[in-house]
Amino acid sequence: MKAVLQRVANARVDISGRTVGAIDAGLLVLLCAERGDVDALADRMLAKILKLRIFADEAGKMNRSVQDIGGGLLVVSQFTLAADASAGNRPSFIQAAPPDEGRRLYEYFVAQARTAHPVVATGEFGADMQVHLLNDGPVTIPLQMTA
């Protein structure tokens, strides 16, 4: 399972001109389920995201988590994180989970996030989305969980 975290001042997802998910300060989580991923990887990924200390404390040091600041999570499915562009000019996405399994893992991750954290917004799995964000820092962190 892969994720790219972006610390944001605010972020939103629009589909066909309609906002479907939005947060103020927090994390935009671009999430990709890969072939062979299981619920336990999603659980580990969520635990890491919620505890990752990438927000400034009173001294300006990255020492606070999204939970510490009461920030939001905006979780967006992004199968293109599984891209392999090592051969040729067209990326291959064969490492991405098949659509049904990708949707199931995405929905599982979101459900677990909503259980563990008070502010969780989402995009829509498989939709053509426009993601708007004001990156804070900028701080962008790639994460990968493997079995």
Entry keywords:
D-tyrosyl-trna(Tyr) Deacylase, Chain: A, 147 residues, alpha/beta, globular, 3 helices, six-stranded mixed β-sheet
Please tell me how large the radius of gyration is: 15 Å
Strand content: 35-45%
Structural class: alpha/beta
CATH class: Alpha Beta
Chain-averaged pLDDT: 97
How can the largest sheet be summarized? 6 strands, mixed
Helix content: 10-25%
Number of strands: 8
Distance between the termini: 9 Å
Low-confidence runs of at least 5 consecutive residues = none
Task: Outline the structure in words.
By secondary structure, the protein is α/β, with parallel strands linked by helices. It has one domain: D-tyrosyl-trna(Tyr) Deacylase, Chain: A. The chain is built from three helices and eight strands; from the N terminus they run E-E-E-H-E-E-H-E-H-E-E. Strands 1, 2, 3, 6, 7 and 8 form a six-stranded mixed β-sheet that branches. The chain has a two-stranded antiparallel ribbon with strand order 4-5. Strand 6 (72-77), helix 3 and strand 7 form a beta-alpha-beta unit. The mean pLDDT is 97.
Give a brief description.
The protein has 147 residues and is an alpha/beta fold. It has helices spanning 39-51, 66-69, 99-116; strands at 2-15, 18-23, 26-32, 55-56, 62-64, 72-77, 120-122, 130-144. Strand 6, helix 3 and strand 7 form a beta-alpha-beta unit.
Chain-wise SSE layout:
Elements: E1 2-15, E2 18-23, E3 26-32, H1 39-51, E4 55-56, E5 62-64, H2 66-69, E6 72-77, H3 99-116, E7 120-122, E8 130-144
Parallel strand pairs: 3-6, 6-7
Antiparallel strand pairs: 1-2, 1-3, 1-8, 4-5
